[in-house]
Amino acid sequence: YNSKFYLASRHTSMIHNDYRSKNIYTNLLIFSFSIIKNEFHTNNILIWPNENNLKILNKLCLNPIVYKYNVYFKEFKTNKNKKLFSKDLKIYKNLNFSLFKNKIKSNKYLFNKNILYFQWRYLKYRKEDYLFIVLYNKSNEMKSIFVIKQEIQNKTIIFSILDYIYFYKYSFLQDFNYLLSNKDLLIGEKNFNFFLIKLWCNNKDTYLKKLLKTKNFILNNEKQYYLSYLNITKKSIKTKKIINKNNIFMGDTDNFIYIND
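The structure assignment produced for this chain is given below.
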């Protein structure tokens, strides 16, 4: 996180179905936490548990601080007379992130995401899955980028907002609102009658929740995601404000990376 405070992030664990309910996940946690504490000298850990994993954390008396992320979506009907061009918003299927070296701001991210991160995350594997929505200011300079995953389900194309990159001022709400006003550009010349925009929202983010409500987005009650922050020494946690004031996006997890076709 910074030079004075380090967070370890545990993203993935996989247990074969035949070996579940045998305390393997619990033992993996204990083992990995000891490695993190002794070799990396930090007691502060972020993990992405499901509801069953949360029970295990509480059983271990780790008393995690849990943040809940809800998924919102809205289906749109394709405008047959849609515009295909905007001077303030352009869509790229590939992007040379090296052009933005030293320009990307990261003070609003929990994770330190630089050029190498974005290249690795969105261009190294299945880069055809992603679109890069670039917004420009009045001086025709790049002001921000939305990274969007596109997939097709039931003859509907789904655009999931995975990441947000900004160069000057963090203005996600304003830029997201502008993206919605130009949503037909996402379809372009694709032949779909309907398309869906999806993103998640921290349950405590009142500003984004208000905007989503105003725009008639629907809360998906069937799926929630959890981020847990814990201190493995079981001391009281005094640094939760670090998470509260920083942003975490869908692309920061492995839940939206597909390893199979």
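Interim note for the steering committee: The mean pLDDT is 82. The helical segments are 24-39, 51-59, 115-123, 172-181, 184-187, 206-214, 241-244.
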